[in-house]
């Protein structure tokens, strides 16, 4: 009861107790605290009286902690660490973000979304330097010295802090020139007769499955690619150039769909892919340069990004325009 009436004395006593536990000597603790040995001893005696337990075993030559003292010491150390962290957090919040960060991002997402926005980031935080690693592999952040990574799908490593960003959607696209020459497929069966552009995983050598979803049902098909790339941005470029039909993420296709360089084919087959996550190592505090980068990525890749809405609007318009044709057949 008395400890709650005088919290200042209680916190002072905690500091004295921790110093005594570290030095295991009243004389050494007194020297470190600029107190007399008797003053240290009296402070510990008052603390023991407040708690109703003996914290220290006293002998003529040395002291040791009782089992209760060991338990109390662990709690005191955690409390002092939290107080230090609170002070550091206040100072950090006031500090100008500076220093070097290592950011890992998937290659296509990086080139299409993140890299074009980096000038805005470096203008806002001129004292922060970025090492950008364009790599979609699941690397060990600690081992590779990576501060922040953007990845597809929820990370399995529970030791990482994961923050969900955008949802990725897949659509099939081709250039107007290709469709004028070869026609627009009206079914999956017709799609299989077209020239398709596929992705081959450079690590495994396997071709990516096309997940085609309609009315809650998803088919995963291995579509034979006439041309195959190990880079999804190259797939988009090839489709714009008229090489065939490509299975693309919404953020890659959006600009070309908006300006007419690509058209969505079989728009009723819209597949929701894995969400994007930002991950970083768990720690007691996030330095200011990491905080501003995290906030920047969250703003850049929100849950409902503009490119996703553009694709959804285009699909809705395409399906509306097709409706009269279907009613007339």
Protein architecture, described:
By secondary structure, this protein is α/β, with parallel strands linked by helices. 48% of the residues lie in helices and 23% in strands. The chain has 13 helices and 13 strands. The chain has helices at residues 2-5, 7-23, 26-33, 37-51, 67-94, 107-124, 141-144, 176-182, 188-191, 232-240, 250-258, 288-300, 306-328, and strands at 56-58, 63-65, 99-105, 128-134, 148-152, 160-174, 196-199, 210-214, 217-221, 227-229, 245-249, 263-265, 271-281. The strands form three sheets. Strands 3, 4, 5, 6, 7, 10, 11, 12 and 13 form a nine-stranded mixed sheet that branches. Strand 8 (210-214) and strand 9 (217-221) form a beta hairpin. Helix 2 crosses helix 4. The N and C termini lie far apart (85 Å). The mean pLDDT is 88.
Summary?
With 329 residues, the chain is an alpha/beta fold.
Core attributes:
329 residues, alpha/beta, 9-stranded mixed sheet
Straight-line N-to-C gap? 85 Å
Helix count, per DSSP? 13
Number of strands: 13
Query: Tell me, what's the shape?
Result: elongated
The ordered string of helix (H) and strand (E) elements is: HHHHEEHEHEHEEHHEEEEHEHEEHH
Please indicate the percent range of residues in DSSP E strands (runs of 2 or more): 15-25%
What structural class is derived from the secondary structure elements?
A: alpha/beta
Spans of 5+ residues with little confidence (pLDDT < 50)?
none
Please give the share of residues in helix: 40-55%
Mean pLDDT: 88
Instruction: Tell me the quaternary state.
Output: single chain
Computed CA radius of gyration, to the nearest angstrom:
31 Å
**Major sheet details:** 9 strands, mixed
């Amino acid at each position: 009861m008395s400890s709650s009436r005088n919290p200042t004395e209680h916190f002072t006593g905690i500091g004295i107790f921790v110093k005594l536990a570290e030095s295991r000597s009243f004389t050494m603790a007194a020297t470190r605290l600029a107190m007399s040995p008797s003053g240290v001893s009296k402070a510990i005696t008052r603390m023991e009286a407040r708690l109703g337990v003996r914290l220290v075993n006293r002998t003529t030559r040395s002291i040791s902690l009782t089992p209760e003292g060991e338990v109390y010491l662990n709690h005191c150390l955690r409390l002092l660490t939290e107080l230090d962290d609170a002070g550091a957090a206040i100072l950090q919040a006031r500090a100008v973000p500076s220093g070097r960060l290592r950011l890992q991002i998937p290659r296509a997402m990086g080139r299409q979304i993140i890299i074009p926005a980096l000038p805005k980031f470096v203008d806002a935080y001129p004292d922060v330097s970025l090492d950008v690693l364009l790599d979609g592999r699941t690397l060990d952040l600690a081992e590779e010295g990576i501060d922040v990574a953007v990845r597809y799908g929820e990370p399995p490593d529970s030791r990482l802090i994961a923050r969900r960003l955008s949802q990725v959607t897949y659509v099939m696209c081709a250039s107007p020139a290709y469709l004028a020459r070869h026609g627009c497929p009206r079914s999956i069966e017709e799609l299989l007769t077209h020239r398709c552009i596929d992705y081959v995983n450079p690590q495994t050598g396997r071709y990516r499955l096309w997940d085609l979803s309609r009315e809650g049902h998803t088919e995963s098909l291995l579509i034979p690619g006439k041309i195959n790339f190990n880079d999804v941005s190259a797939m988009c470029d090839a489709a714009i150039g008229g090489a065939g039909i490509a299975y693309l993420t919404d953020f890659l296709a959006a600009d070309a769909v908006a300006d007419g360089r690509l058209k969505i084919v079989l728009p009723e087959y819209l597949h929701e892919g894995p969400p994007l996550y930002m991950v970083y190592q768990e720690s007691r505090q996030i330095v200011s340069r990491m905080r501003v980068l995290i906030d920047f990525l969250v703003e850049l890749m929100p849950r409902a990004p503009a490119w996703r809405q553009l694709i959804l609007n285009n699909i809705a318009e395409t399906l509306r325009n097709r409706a009269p044709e279907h009613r007339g057949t």
